[in-house]
């Protein structure tokens, strides 16, 4: 006889939870790990989450990444001891953080080293490679970050969209090359974003499990955009797959550009990037190809897109650069940097899969995925991004 199916019994679900709670309570009460603890000093891991410079002050936020409590005893700047205040006290439990304000006459454009000594005498250092005042939220810095975002995000994508009239007149073989070129462009962004994401993840405190955080968020972004694409296709009329794909590409590139703006803003705030003319030119060349990737799926549409639709796609792909520059310049957080880089990588991975499936469906008959136009387009896309990327690296 088959078991009855019906409303689940809540008590059956609570029994394992109650037993688990009892087990955890027993472990905490008996503390079996205490018998194995060595009599030596505790394991201390203190990390610097953010260091900012104000006129006459160095402000450092530190985080206890170790299993044992940490007591901050002294602070050195350039090998000299300095007084300090701690907004959350000097005793930090596991995952505790505090912000240290150090009255120190730092020198513009000079390097400084901040050292925190714990009560056990363990030192933890942070180097300030170039001392510049950290931007504060005001009209001047807001305008600077906005202008940078427009230069390296909005305008390049807009310029790339201007290729649409030319693309609409290409032959079928040329369009195979172009869609494969788009895949090559996006694959480069995917690999580049993953590299930056794992680099950022490695700088996080071990307690945040940066690599796992990056991978999980990237997978979630992939699935979210996959679901969004299905929903959009269900609401669009038959035969508008190119428009949906163009929108998904714009969203993926926009999320990638948000992470790019985040990196630009944080580097600018920390004095680690001098965004001169050459760097802006490099970003412009690099990101112009993103506009080309957005409009490529529209070239095969029977109904040509309106100007307003092209403008909307360009804004979706480019404007997030401005928002990322704002966030990176004013309230940069290493954790959020990893999260947003992961979102961009997951979104671009989904878009690459979408375009590859489309090329595969249209490659029936004589046009194969291994044809010359497709292979040439893939190689050309990666090469273009690699060469232009050298100007911003």
Structure described in brief:
The protein is an alpha+beta fold and 393 residues long.
Q: Catalogue the unreliable spans.
A: none
Order of helices and strands: HEEEEEEEEEHHHHHHHHHH
Helix content: 55-70%
Strand percentage: 5-15%
Structural class call reads alpha+beta
- Main sheet overview: 5 strands, antiparallel
Distance between the termini: 68 Å
Describe the global form. globular
Account of the 3D structure:
This protein has 393 residues and is of the alpha+beta class. It has two domains: 46-128, Immunoglobulin-like; 139-390. Helix content is 57%, strand content 13%. The protein has helices at 10-30, 139-161, 164-167, 172-202, 210-235, 241-269, 277-295, 307-318, 320-331, 334-362, 372-390, and strands at residues 46-54, 57-64, 70-77, 80-82, 85-86, 91-92, 97-103, 112-118, 123-128. The N and C termini lie far apart (68 Å). 38% of the residues are buried. The model has no long low-confidence stretch (mean pLDDT 80).
Q: Which helices and strands occur, and which strands form pairs?
A:
Blueprint: H1 10-30, E1 46-54, E2 57-64, E3 70-77, E4 80-82, E5 85-86, E6 91-92, E7 97-103, E8 112-118, E9 123-128, H2 139-161, H3 164-167, H4 172-202, H5 210-235, H6 241-269, H7 277-295, H8 307-318, H9 320-331, H10 334-362, H11 372-390
Antiparallel strand pairs: 1-2, 2-7, 3-4, 3-6, 3-8, 5-7, 8-9
